[in-house]
Amino acid sequence: MSAKDHSSLFSDLTRLFLPRSIALVGASARPDSVGGRTLENLTRVSDFKGDLYLVNPSRDEIGGMRCYPSMASLPAAPDVVIITVPAQAAIEALESAAACGVPFAIILSSGFGEADEEGARAEAQLCEIVQRTGIRVYGPNCPGLNNINARLGMSFSPAFRHDLHPGPIGLATQGGGLGRTFMQAMERGIGVGMWASSGNQADLEVSDFIHYMADAPDIKVIVTLIEGFKSGRKFVAAVRHAARMGKPVVALKVGKSEYGIRSAQSHTASMTGSAEINSAVLRQFGVIEVDDIDELVDTAWLLARRLPKGDEKLVVYASSGGAATLAADKVGSAGLELAEFAPETLQRLRALLPSYMPVSNPVDVGTEIFTRPRLVDDSLQVVVEDPSVGLVLYPYPLDYGQMIQQNAESTIRVQARTDVPILPVWMSDRIGEGYQAFVKAGLTPSRSLSNAVKAVQRWIAWGNWRRAFDPDFEPLLPEDAVAAQGDRPLHALSEAEGKRRLAASGIRVLPAGVATNAEEAVRLAEECGYPVVAKIVSKDIAHKSETGGVRVGLGSAQDVSEAWTNIMASVREKAPRARIEGLLIEKMAPSGGAEVFVGVQRDPIFGHFLTFGLGGIYVEVFKDVSRRMLPLNEETALEMIRELRSFPILDGARGQPKRDIAALVHLLVQVSEFVKNNAAELDELDLNPVWVGEQGQGAIPLDAVILNGIRN
Amino acid sequence: MSAKDHSSLFSDLTRLFLPRSIALVGASARPDSVGGRTLENLTRVSDFKGDLYLVNPSRDEIGGMRCYPSMASLPAAPDVVIITVPAQAAIEALESAAACGVPFAIILSSGFGEADEEGARAEAQLCEIVQRTGIRVYGPNCPGLNNINARLGMSFSPAFRHDLHPGPIGLATQGGGLGRTFMQAMERGIGVGMWASSGNQADLEVSDFIHYMADAPDIKVIVTLIEGFKSGRKFVAAVRHAARMGKPVVALKVGKSEYGIRSAQSHTASMTGSAEINSAVLRQFGVIEVDDIDELVDTAWLLARRLPKGDEKLVVYASSGGAATLAADKVGSAGLELAEFAPETLQRLRALLPSYMPVSNPVDVGTEIFTRPRLVDDSLQVVVEDPSVGLVLYPYPLDYGQMIQQNAESTIRVQARTDVPILPVWMSDRIGEGYQAFVKAGLTPSRSLSNAVKAVQRWIAWGNWRRAFDPDFEPLLPEDAVAAQGDRPLHALSEAEGKRRLAASGIRVLPAGVATNAEEAVRLAEECGYPVVAKIVSKDIAHKSETGGVRVGLGSAQDVSEAWTNIMASVREKAPRARIEGLLIEKMAPSGGAEVFVGVQRDPIFGHFLTFGLGGIYVEVFKDVSRRMLPLNEETALEMIRELRSFPILDGARGQPKRDIAALVHLLVQVSEFVKNNAAELDELDLNPVWVGEQGQGAIPLDAVILNGIRN
Prior knowledge:
The structure is a homodimer. The first copy, chain A, is α/β, with parallel strands linked by helices. Chain A is built from 25 helices and 29 strands. In chain A, strand 24 (about 595-605) and strand 25 (about 605-615) form a beta hairpin. At the A-B interface, helix 5, helix 8, helix 10, helix 11 and helix 17 of A face helix 5, helix 8, helix 10, helix 11 and helix 17 of B.
């Protein structure tokens, strides 16, 4: 898939988000019905200038507006039809809208897949209409679509009237609950330009909205709540498009622990997938993953206020020594950097601050601000003018009424004159006029220092990621492979066959061959060069050592002959029914290498992933692995190796030799190519261990397990 | 120090917190002076029934209350004198109060150690008066002492009038700023019984207040903000006393990262100490360390509502599928357990909930609650009656006005009938009547799911810790040792001498001796048994290998003779000025053991700590060590070994042999005894590596570095 053929995945949704005309099927005069509430939102709360057609066969008019008996009777096909009637009637309305040439339907009605078997059948009918006619459906079982920047609520929610604080954030969710938690952060000063929440996602889904928002000129930052994925390909295309357009995507993914996954599955029908795989995908496309709604608000709004370059240094500015210290502490623990002031800045600050206050970063202006109201204006101005300052963190530990209000207003004045973001942190549970001033000015105070520092950390990290982003990266994705292959069951290749295929693709393996008698074994050993190892070859034997099927350190022809006799005797005794293909004779790995592992798995949603690490306790206890979608280039492969916390073990820590990193990079890229060329059939590949020699000695897989086929 | 001799460390502060009579030196009629504001707090905001004497030589009365010209002229010595006059006058007033037999002085005035050199001299004078007369001083440079449960504010702070929500939390801080952040959480429903914040802590300090609050019958939970420590001994005695009294201590310690430490040092004069050491002390005495003020509020209040047993299982109860899933997710990620409902509970819930809702934990009652107002009362009641339920986590993702208010009131009703804590989480930034209902009922909603789950985690962990707490543990503390020793500079023992002393204390080391000529070396080698290692012995050579001073694997008399010649030649060439004592001949360790390290350091505040780990990358990269104050018993030693994340390496992971854990436990206890017996002089001890054999083979230090003396 190239950058240009998104058209095959995504429709242009402009007329859904910005319709010129709307029909409301199920328009009602009853104010507490779905149809009545939607009408109220469209006519009284929205500021919709286009044509609005009401469809209701049992009335002539509602509140002075004419009613049409059916979609077919409308004078023109609207851009959007909003359907509020029960499931079966909704299906009929949809069919009729499609017949009229309506491009988009928003189905608010419930009683579909979420309800029961009859509902599931209705939803299947709905999908069939979409497939057949090309009409695009938003919903069903959803609260509607709000384009707040256009002041248009195609929604039955009585809360829409509280949702009218426009802004640069686009919100794309599936369920409505936590999305509304985010919306209510408008109370803290954020502005949300549009909210798409399409419930059952029978057709259009979160990825479609992310893709649309990436193009929408009034959206700067996209926020999403992920309960599961319908199509890996669409999600990847959508977030990559956002990255290409320079718009950060901030995501809260639920279903990360066992309890969460179980609960998500009972709550939605989505596949939640493995948390590790999902996080790897998000990271790879620069999607900022957060852990709670408050973090989502803080992070998204900081990004909305200003996009980072990725090298910002901080100032902590406060009028409380304790708050300054706690903030500096958190900045340090998060690995962020405090700015070093230029000499001129220090001089200017010294001239402003009382002589007994030390001038440094954190800047502590003390209680002076209560007696000198201009002090914040003046000193904060000096701070933001320093050339090395990228962001000011300003903790307010407590409310002191009017004094803090004046202080907040000074801060807001300084912010109005500078591009350097000033991030106030309102730490107290007492909300005063100062807080309200920040809210009104759009400075959206964080409610805890920890969250504020996390937001800054993620803000800077996104800037960094963006600088390194490869806009042309095309991951291997699973759909084509699965479609091409049908349902072949899983089967494992023998080690010998696996290594043969790896070798055929250019991957260095140790010289080896499969002998079918003792003489051939000796001949192969002579060819490989002593010492060799001998391993039984049988598809029926998974654990070779347990059947006595392995002998190592064979140094002579006699050793090899004896090994043949002993292995065959042992295997015949311990696994009498195993079909034996022969004996793998392989040169022994040089001693003294480091051992790593390379694993590839196929995720049903996102395709093949490569996992790299040092194995053993490093993966089992410390979870120290790196993981990427495929394919890899050399740069990414090196990144994977270097990002291991245990990398020093490969890099010559504590007097050990430096390992052959170049060979390891080459191996990872070769494995990636191998997977790409075998993507249709390869399900899993494990090279464990991989021997890594000193510089120049290479990196060689010592064992290879390849599983082909399709998992059930 | 035994449990009974706290008297030598702590005075009874009852008459400071609950005075029967108070004198106010510097009482003023000017409402915005320190003396005037203090008078206002004492007479108008407080409900003080005792005698109040005003001291002001220039007035006869203030507001109808008589003024005395001096302390000496008072009719009786009050329990507390509050001093608000400038530093020099304050010193005089203190002297005169002490002469009258006043037991406690609260000095609100600033201009002491925090100000300049003159102030530091005044503070020294103040300390001298304390030493000489026995009067106890609270302050100077502090906002005062508030006993809210007694409705008594001995404070000049105009904010005291907002601090009148009494309760079971005792707050002990040094500076006032972040303490007030905590106080303002009264706005979220917490009650604070008393707040001590004694500024410069010239005499009484945080530890004194913790100790007092541990005895105070109206205090259940102690909260402290730690900027540094004056006396390790007092802090340990105070928190141990709290633990013995069954009262949790929750602490926020600032100064954990470099930036924070630097800022704390410029902000206060306290020694902040090493974050790792401080955290180890807190953990060892069950002090719950949190990372931010909001976490402090949530954790302390949950403990104040109910003390945990340590085995509580949770229910997540919600009316939003998204919030339920996110909450369950966090419960799982935190390693907490969801309760399994009894069959009867399931049956009762099924009878209450609509048939389409699955009944499990999380309990999702859906939007039904909006149409059936009794549903929360009924179903939540069933939940808390389940025998396995220890706590209910109830996330409220959004405000819906009156509907949520009714819902909150139902929750409050159920809480009133049960001991199982119900913890509401108000996730939205929109504060409504429901939130206010929780505040009023003292259910103090958490403001984020993450914080709520962290609070529950810490709550349960404290219950667990308390069950295992050894109330008789007496740590080695530094003061006596340092006092006994004077200022001897640091000096290192040679490896041979260090091992000799370890061996003399019963610690198993390899057979060894120091030879002063080649013949003696051979004789020693024969005694030890081959193979042996030979290492140069010289106090002037720190890195023996770099001078060619080490030979290993010497298997015969000839090897040993040659080693003597070669080592001496090499050392004479590479370190010509080193004074050589001889050659250490030592039996070589058996091959194939695991390597660990045992380190002991003396912290200037808290004394000797033992650190244990696997060394190398495990400590350097993964920070995988365990650390305890000394002495250790076998139980604690085993705990230290088992709490390593890399413990599986010693425990036979991945086919490796199980190591001799019993011998390792024995070694740790022996090292602890060694340190105890040498506490006065021992500064640092490093056994690295320690060889650990298979079960029955023992654990043997292969190298030993001992530093004696006192660090500058």
